[in-house]
Amino acid sequence: MSMVPPEVAAFVATASRLSERTLDAIRQTAAAAVTSGAYDHAAVPALSAAEFSALNRQVRDAFAPRGDELSAGRPGGLRSAIARTTQTAQAIWKRDRLTTDQYASLTETFTAHGIPIPLPPSGFGSGVSSF
To answer: Cα separation of 113 and 131, whole Å?
Structure first.
């Protein structure tokens, strides 16, 4: 049994099935958010070593069948898809540690493309949708 929470596993599965075009759009959205200061890498909640290892394995395994496809597109496509998915999954996993604004900021690269994200525990209206 994986230690990755079911809502995180569901997000990873959804993210890994996104089209190359959508993943590239998420990559561009994330780059623009970092540049504008809307996305702060420091806000991504840390996981324990065991948690991160389990998440990393799940994300990499989910994207592995698409490695050639995503690597053949834009340079760094596979690496970006894995990184974006992992960071967003960390935010979902530890969303109880984040403010509603931080959670929205860390998940917006996916929600902007219609990807459902679990609500934060507080349930405040942050503009994120529920799984």
So the answer is: 14
Segments in 1-131 forming alpha helices (H): 6-16, 20-36, 49-63, 67-72, 77-93, 100-111
- Tell me if 70 sits within 8 A of 77, measured CB to CB: yes
Through-space distance between the first and last CA atoms of the chain, rounded to whole angstroms: 22
3-class secondary-structure state, position 69: helix
CA distance 101 to 48: 23
CA angle 124, 100, 116 (to 5 degrees): 80
This prediction has a pTM of 0.87
**8-state DSSP, 64:** G
* pLDDT for 42 beyond 50: yes
Region 46-63 average pLDDT: 96
- Per DSSP, the three-state class of 18 is coil
